[in-house]
Here is the input.
Amino acid sequence: MKKLSLATALFASLFAFNTNAYQYEVNGAYEHTKFDDIDEKINTYGINGKYYLNPVQAKGTPLAEAAFTSKASNIGLSYVKLDSDYGDEDYYGVSGEFFIPNTQFYVSGSINQSNFDGEGDGTGYALEAGYLPLDGLLVAVGIADVEKSINPDLITKNGLIGTSSIAGAVEDDDTVVSLRAKYLTQIGGFYTNFEGVAYFADETSYKLGADLYLDPTLSVGASFADSTADDSDTVFNIRVQKFFTQQIAVGLNYTTVDGADAYGINATYRF
Here is the structure.
């Protein structure tokens, strides 16, 4: 009887671990972009996957922030396809994030390849070094080349309009300097995530956003992006994400800028 009780307890503990921890994450996204002045629509399809070097557990923080609060190092693959009446574009990427053990330092990097229908290929990269001066705060500086290609993870996360706004203002420069910050904190009993990124070249582009977690499974957020370019227009985005289980989440987003609107849906699966 004691052996049976021990086996039952062991099984229960393993089952609990497996339901609360994950080591793989797959994200899929679709976005439909419509332009006001031209008869063109663009459908964007994206998928990415991450492998975490150690199992990730949500420790009383929002499920969407589990990897960040756990300082979970990871490697990933990503792919995005832009489908329009004027041709297709394909983006492929490899990326990695590493929180250096027993320190507050962070490094990340990505390399990506683009294929423009009938116009050849392009290669881009991004490198970052960061520091976490206190719990929940990451500040990182880096360099990036977005002239001929861009990390497909950015398109999946920011959408076509948002990414074009950020990268478009600096894409004529071979190498740009980036500055990024992320801060997860509690305000009035609710977790809130603040994020900002800027690219510096002949012009400067930037994006600022925030997500409010109404509970560990549900968030609402908004962001805006712009640049110092003369013809730049501000891009606005609103979004919502809901984890229905610890493994499955669905999100919706809407992005608008003068002359275009985009509607998107995304899903996350962890195991």
Observations:
- Helices lie at 2-20, 66-69, 152-168.
- The CA atoms of residues 100 and 129 lie 11 Å apart.
- The longest strand covers residues 41-57.
